[in-house]
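User: For documentation purposes, I need each entry recorded in a consistent format: the amino acid sequence on its own, followed directly by the corresponding structure tokens. There are two entries in this batch. Please keep commentary to a minimum and don't merge the entries.

Assistant: Recorded as requested. Entry 1:
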Amino acid sequence: MTTMPVSLDLDAATVDRLAERGREAGQSQSELAQRYIEESLRMERHPGIIFVDGPVGRRPALRGGPDVWEMVPEIRGVDPTNTEEIEAIAAWMHMSALAVRAAIDYYAEFRDEIDAWVATHDELAEQHRAIWRAEPGLPPE
């Protein structure tokens, strides 16, 4: 990614909070500011999407719902104008059609990023299955 210098005038309290959070996260103020600005722009463009931390990193999720990558099997290839299909997915997943539509729209814009999350989790799941299957006393596949 190419970076460009930008000058920002921030109030002292914001700079202090950014510095404190940087120390906690082990990141520079520039790295955090970049992340916060990018995430805010994405959340503004895609209402209903938030960003959450977890053991495998920071990722986009639906507010009050699953991570966007977790919805890919249900939303991949869905026509965003097909209201019936979106409502069926929403009913099956016990969420609003608005939330499903938010995931579809976010996935459409950031497909490569979300597909990378899916691939990472598929690899981790396979590694864990291999470890589990190697346990003594388990029946063969």
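Entry 2:
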Amino acid sequence: MSFIPLTSFPALNASLNGTCAFLLLTGYFFIRNKKILAHKICMSFAFIVSAIFLVCYLYYHAHHGATLFSGRGWVRPVYFIILISHTLLAGVVLPLALITLYRAWKGQFDKHVKIARITFPIWLYVSITGVVIYWMLYR
């Protein structure tokens, strides 16, 4: 990944999070309209984009370290509330997404739907707050 400047990773990661959120919402729209193949494609790409994000995120933080939030006043506790909830839920998303995708892949659609109702809002929240955190840190 050395062909990508380290300074480009925060924007890249935010773009991947935003793309994932878009794919999740689009996949949700498709399944609500009984377009199963389109749903499968969107959700598969959401997972792939999230996996790419995770690799990029780990690479960036292994080489850059933490970025300190410099905001002051009321925005500081807001930032940390968003960051803490994002971080905790991000740790839950990967196993939930894996289980959700596995159940769909195995044709266990009743189980898939049950866990997808939990996975979807958490995954969407993590994707959107990833963009919000980027915006608060770098903009």
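Summary note for entry 2:
Residues 75-105 form the longest helix (31 residues).
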